Amino acid sequence: MPDIKKQISFTPEIRKIIRQKLKDPNFKYTNWSDESLEEIRKTIRGFYRNEQNGKCAYCRGVVSLQSASNCHVEHILPKSKYSKFLFEPKNLCVICADCNEIKREKETLDFTDQILKQPNIQLYPRSTKSFLIVHPHFDNYDEHIKILIGGHYVDLSPKGNRTIGICKLNRFLHNFGWPDEPSSLEDMLKTAEKLQHNSDPLEQIRILRELAKQLNSNADILII
Ligand SMILES: [Zn+2]
């Protein structure tokens, strides 16, 4: 199932404002940030934040639940190139600040798709094949990308590979390196034994933390 199961349905009042904006010859995609659209942006952000269970559509990291600073309204087809889809419900979702900063205006339409041969698309594509990246309205994320607990994104398809590349999803590993080497079973059993024979509560907490770290260092292996 795609992460977004239901698209936003605008109220008649909002639909009226959108119609007016799109009809206005002076209205450009850069007007998206206008104060007059603040309420609409807020409505879209709130809807998709909820629909996506507070997770970024690309990295699945948490987005902020109150503030707008780490919960950006995302135009899956970039608004600078496809301004006609500025308010298209299927083109909207929420993403985290880092994915937003990195993806920016990168092309996401796959022009090798036969349906898109026409030079200027009028209708929003409905086929998963039309998009280069994992589309949160159409694609099942888990079929394209696997996230290991250490924060390593593994591609399961060409689409997953492109999403990882376009949004630089392995940025955390690239910046901070791989997590600690996995601990051996023997190490973990030794730590568990220390815990069993220690009666000092503070020391027990310290040993428990050590054990948790050792277990966590094996999480990637356990998941595979
Ligand atoms: Zn993200």
Written account of the structure:
This protein is mainly alpha-helical and 224 residues long. The two termini are 22 Å apart. Helix 7 packs antiparallel against helix 8. Strand 3 and strand 4 form a beta hairpin. Helix content is 38%, strand content 7%. It has two domains: 164 residues, no CATH class; 39 residues. The strands form two sheets. It has a two-stranded antiparallel sheet. The protein is elongated, with a radius of gyration of 22 Å. It has nine helices and four strands. The structure holds zinc ion. The site of zinc ion has 8 residues, from helix 3.
Shape: elongated
> For the terminal residues, how far apart are their CA atoms?
22 Å
- Number of H/I helices: 9
Give the spatial strand order of the biggest sheet: 1-2
Poorly predicted runs of 5 or more residues: none
Number of domains: 2
Strand content: 5-15%
Task: Summarize model confidence as the mean pLDDT.
Answer: 90
Catalogue the ligands.
zinc ion
Number of strands: 4
Rg, alpha carbons: 22 Å
Quaternary structure: single chain
- How helix-rich are the residues, as a percent range? 25-40%
Biggest β-sheet strands, sense, barrel = 2 strands, antiparallel
Structural class: mainly alpha
Order of helices and strands: HHEEHHEEHHHHH
